[in-house]
Amino acid sequence: MQHQQHHQQETADGGEQQHGGASSLRAVSSTPLTTNQLDTLIATTLHCPSPEQFVHDVSIGTIWQLCEEASHVLREQGSLVETKPPLVMCGDIHGQFEDLKRIFNKMGYPPFTKYMFLGDIVDRGSQSVETIVLLLLYKVRYPTKFYVLRGNHECASINRTYGFYDEINERYGQHNVKPLWERFNMTFAWLPFVGLVSDCILCMHGGIAPEMTNIQQLRMLRRPYIDPPCPSLELDLLWADPSTAVEGTAPNPRGVSILFGADVVARVCRKLNIELVVRAHQCVPFGVSFFANSYMLTLFSAPMYQTEQNVGAVLVIDAKLQLSFRFFKGTQITPNIGTKKDLSGAGARRENIASAKVRIECRIEQNYSDKTDELRRKFAIKRAEMQKRQNGGAPNRLGTKSFNVP
Fold first, then answer.
1. Does the annotation mark 153 as catalytic?
2. Is the predicted pLDDT of residue 143 greater than 70, yes or no?
3. CB-based burial of residue 402 (10 Å sphere; 0-12 exposed, 13-18 middle, 19+ buried)?
4. What's the half-sphere exposure (Cβ side, CA atoms, 13 Å) at 344?
5. Confidence check: pLDDT of 376 > 80
6. Which contacts (CB < 8 Å, 24+ apart) does range 159-164 have?
7. I need a surface site. Which of 81, 95, 99, 238 has the fewest CB within 10 A?
8. Pairwise CA distance, residues 69 & 59, whole Å
9. What is the predicted pLDDT for the residue at 365?
């Protein structure tokens, strides 16, 4: 990409694109973006045909101002965001902008559909900038209809290495990359760690920890952190993973945080009076995976993630707390065909890619109905367990509801 430095260009938001380093980046208007400006920027981002056009249409100064306004909104809402259904919950997106747009197309656009994203918005994929800008625009435009939790990739130490920094550098050049990347991460530092739906569905990116004792503790989680301290509950919420091989906790093979067993899930749910824990953080083949007698659900929304052949999924929670899923196949498949450029074999490579795509989609179709049956069985177990609790006099907010898998 050609870096368009040391000149100005007209942008869709009515300003000018500045490529003059940190000083010009910080010299942005203190006037908040108007509703009309936000709506125009949302439309521009959604319909932008290419990353190059996005750089042209959305100025760095506007992105900077958006980050500042988003930080203010996030700071006011706290470390635990509490909301009511109906809503759609999404797991990792990882810069897969086209797949994000497919989710909005299928599930509805804000504010008509309420959303909660469970973090890992950036890195890995090729359009992290558009992805995070669109989500921050929606957050500022519809603060109580749109929620974005923090993931471990919304930490500077991670997104410096796994794609976000390099993407900003490629788009905006070496004079702008560091201040703009730092500005994004200052906003990430204010993202909430935890979500709570109807007082009974607890949500985070990574996982839980034995130290979790009550909801008020989660309201008091500390912010802002560019990178949460290690060890800390904040870190576990971003990094921890469930394990069927663990009772209690154990060191996490990632080298950060912990693994936790089903017993920890049961104990935390009991202490916090929670019916279901929804987390992201791990790519699972069909976008959904259950743990701890279905008291924990892993949700992953980026289909065909890197070299995986996974389906993406979102969780739909209706006004009566009935849960259902929607599944998404990938928009494109990029098999590992090596790093060499062999233009003479381009035609054969295209055929191989097309063939691989057919094989992968056939495999998904073949397994899809079996997986749906498995999800129904797991939900049946969940219903039976909740009914047992209800018969024993324990409060039960989900047990009389049906769990539907499309």
1. yes
2. yes
3. exposed
4. 0
5. no
6. 159/122, 159/123, 159/185, 162/123, 162/124, 163/95, 163/122, 163/123, 163/124, 163/125, 163/128, 164/95, 164/122, 164/123, 164/128
7. 81
8. 15
9. 44
Q: What are phi and psi of 77, to 5 degrees?
A: -90, -15
Sheet with 115-117: strands ordered across: 146-148, 115-117, 87-90, 312-317, 323-328, 403-404
User: In this structure, what token pair is assigned to residue 173?
Assistant: 């050049």
Distance CA 395, CA 275 (A): 10
pLDDT of amino acid 380: 60
> What tens digit of pLDDT does each residue of 333-355 get?
333 222 222 333 334 433 443 34
> Which structure tokens are listed for 11?
């942008």
Residues 150-163 pLDDT 10s: 999 999 999 999 99
Interatomic CA distance for residues 76 and 3, integer angstroms: 37
The helix (run of H) or strand (run of E) holding residue 83 is: strand 80-83
- Residue among 66, 70, 134, 123 at smallest CA distance from 100: 134
Specify the pLDDT at position 31.
85
pLDDT tens digits for range 164-222:
999 999 999 999 999 999 999 999 999 999 999 999 999 999 999 999 999 999 999 99
Instruction: Report d(CA 400, CA 383) in Å as an integer.
Output: 8
Residue 354 CB contacts under 8 Å (≥ 6 apart), including other chains: none
The rounded distance, in Å, linking the Cα atoms of 140 and 125 is: 24
Which pLDDT belongs to residue 381? 62
**318: which 2 tokens?**
């209706």
Two tokens at 49?
Answer: 């045909």
The yes-or-no verdict on residue 374 having pLDDT over 50 is yes
Out of 94, 153, 205, 281, the active site residue is 153
All domains in the chain, ordered by first residue: 9-331+348-404 (3.60.21.10)
